[in-house]
Amino acid sequence: MQIEIITPDKSLFSGEAISVKFPGIGGKFETLNNHANIISSLEKGTIVVKTSEGSKEFEITGGIVEFLKNKIIVLA
């Protein structure tokens, strides 16, 4: 699945992911390939992106995530 993490200043990450963990308002959650489509609010915390090359972590102060047709867009 494709993921793009964007802030008002720059793009933090764009690429292929195996799984992604998010700090949701109602608790942490994870998305995998072919996950159901969702839109969710995010709170302060860490996004963990697992790729074929390892894991990458991104600290955010909040935002919104949309998962649609195996593409994730995070506005943080």
What's the topology here?
Elements: E1 2-6, E2 11-16, E3 19-24, E4 27-32, E5 38-42, E6 45-51, E7 54-60, E8 63-68, E9 71-75
Parallel strand pairs: 1-9
Antiparallel strand pairs: 1-2, 3-4, 3-6, 5-8, 6-7, 8-9
CA distance, first residue to last residue:
19 Å
Give the helix proportion (percent range): under 10%
Neighbour order of strands in the largest sheet: 2-1-9-8-5
CATH class: Mainly Beta
Q: Can you tell me the overall shape?
A: globular
Total beta strands:
9
| CATH homology group | F0F1 ATP synthase delta/epsilon subunit, N-terminal
Beta-strand residue percentage: over 45%
Can you put this structure into words, describing what you see?
- The chain is an all-beta fold and 76 residues long.
- It has one domain (2-75): ATP Synthase, domain 1 (Sandwich).
- It has no helices and nine strands.
- The strands form two sheets. Strands 2-1-9-8-5 form a five-stranded mixed beta sheet, with no helix packed on it.
- A hairpin with a 2-residue loop joins strand 6 and strand 7 (54-60).
Q: What are the salient characteristics of this protein?
A:
single chain; 76 residues; mainly beta; five-stranded mixed sheet; four-stranded antiparallel sheet; 9 strands; globular
Produce a short descriptive summary.
The protein has 76 residues and is mainly beta.
